[in-house]
Amino acid sequence: MWPRSSRATASNDGLQSAAAIPEGWRWLRAALDIRNEKINYKVREHSHAKVPAMLVVGRREAEDGTVNIRRLGVKQQTSMPLGEAVKALAQEAVAPDVRRAMKRAA
Fold first, then answer.
1. Domain ranges in the chain?
2. Is the CB of residue 80 less than 8 Å from the CB of residue 66?
3. In angstroms, rounded to a whole number, what is the distance separating the alpha carbons of residues 4 and 50?
4. Cα–Cα distance, 55 to 70 (Å, whole number)
5. What 3-state DSSP class applies to 76?
6. Distance CA 68, CA 101 (A)
7. DSSP character for 74?
8. CB count, 10 Å around CB of 106?
9. pLDDT tens, position by position, 72-96
10. Radius of gyration, CA atoms only, the chain
């Protein structure tokens, strides 16, 4: 079994918004963490598990329709709309040789 490359972590207030995230990227190795734990605990736990990217949805993000992207080894987090976040992760997931072939074809 492959390790998960992305996690979507949500507070109780952001569950409905977070539930839509994995549907947008079924082709990525992603999981939704909806356990009844504090969001800081879940973020810390996934950081220790070395998950490369986490999308965090809390009350504020659910209201705004955005997600916070936390990356492994980077202290700064990025907030962006869900659609943009999925596009950014999709571009990063393309293998380097495929990316080079796409540039040559364009």
1. 6-105
2. yes
3. 10
4. 6
5. coil
6. 31
7. -
8. 5
9. 888 899 999 988 887 888 788 778 8
10. 14
Residues in a beta bridge with 71: 53
- Work out the end-to-end distance of the chain between its first and last CA atoms, rounded to an integer number of angstroms: 35
What is the tens place of the pLDDT at every residue in 39-78?
888 888 888 888 888 888 888 888 888 888 888 888 899 9
Threshold 0.85, pTM exceeds: no
12 to each of 4, 17, 37, 60, 105, how far by Cα in Å?
Answer: 22, 10, 9, 12, 46
Q: Which amino acid is at 86?
A: V
Q: Which CATH architecture has domain 6-105?
A: 3-Layer(aba) Sandwich (3.40)
